[in-house]
């Protein structure tokens, strides 16, 4: 069977599908990052997975840079990348047409013209004799390139005069930067409406609705990233694309659904990982995963077991991913020694004269200076290896399958970095095995629930016990203690500095938060042997 794999399932892609059928291709299917349909078999980044099944492929992408980029990627991968010439086009036998170029309906390419690879010569265009069309160029509808012309690579020759596109009104879009972002990701011409989305407090998040068979559907999540928090957006997005594209291949090998079990981030029309608006702020976009739910707090013990299983499986899937390739976008994020040193500086300066109001909490931290180095020293000595870590392993960063109640997908990947397994494990325990919220003023309500701890350990080690080293497994209880201590130190440091980092609702807010964390640390210390025994129980 003569088959064709087409990268790009937009309008141009469907034109190429029709042309391919006229040329005798019996089967023509798509890879596309955004469009879904019966003929769409994967994302563009999956192209290598289909080489055995479809040895012939083209990149039917309207953007010159993207078309050229993917044409060259397909050639490098070993695909046969033919020129697609519509039967109604007139092409001189002496013309040279490069790989992956498209000559559309009633276009004319005259004698001795050279058309390099990845070129689009659109319907009705005329390229006269002895012209040279550089790779990735676009000769627009009905345009004329006269004899002996040279068109540079990736240049677009417009149809007649240059006509700038006008933008349609999109409901819910009042901000020009939001509008620019929607068009940058290619949704402007079809988007139904946009509205704020989610409960996050760091990034500005919107739901993008597109027309579907049953009416408007939530299709994409668009975010303006807070560059005050994430000062290296390029590094953040490099990490995210690297990890999620790697996960797609792992999930496919496991027999799972890569469109539901990891976030699928979308590049801009020009092929960038993110869009930068007029104010220099970064925007990124990913597919919405339907039939999923997110929980802000543990409502049932089973959810915390599923949380352990989900984050454990996430670590296992990425166990062979080279952590050294990741950007450290927030240096020393979980370096507890550095956190203790920052606390000492804040205590010495006491900028707001608050030290006298928190002496017991200060003494609590000072008494645990040696503890702060336990995991850091093991990392420095090579005892604990660096892994791909999430670094914000709260329950609300997991999507659960709405029908089965099982963990489905890890989200909020901004803090993906090299780190220790114990840190991710510990942050989950700090958040999920507490009996009250972290700013509960009544400490009598805040306790460390060791039964919830055991549920998480069970789910986590069922996935990771064959991946983690013996030293890593032994470090897990320390991870719970130290991530909780570190969080308390950060709250107390911010309180001493005058609340410059964490958002507060009243003057003692950060101090209250520190107290809850120190209560948890104290109870973990009292039950530490039992915590270690539980870990050993589930490694057998």
Automatic annotation (TrEMBL):
InterPro entries found in the cross-reference section: Aminoglycoside_PTrfase, Kinase-like_dom_sf, PglD_N, Pseudomonas-type_ThrB, Trimer_LpxA-like_sf
Query: What SUPFAM superfamilies would the database entry show?
Result: Protein kinase-like (PK-like) (SSF56112), Trimeric LpxA-like enzymes (SSF51161)
Task: Please name one Pfam family that this protein belongs to.
Answer: APH
Residue ranges of domain PglD N-terminal in the record: 4-74
Which top-rank group of organisms is this from?
Bacteria
Tell me where in this chain the Aminoglycoside phosphotransferase domain is found: 195-445
Q: What is this protein called?
A: Phosphotransferase
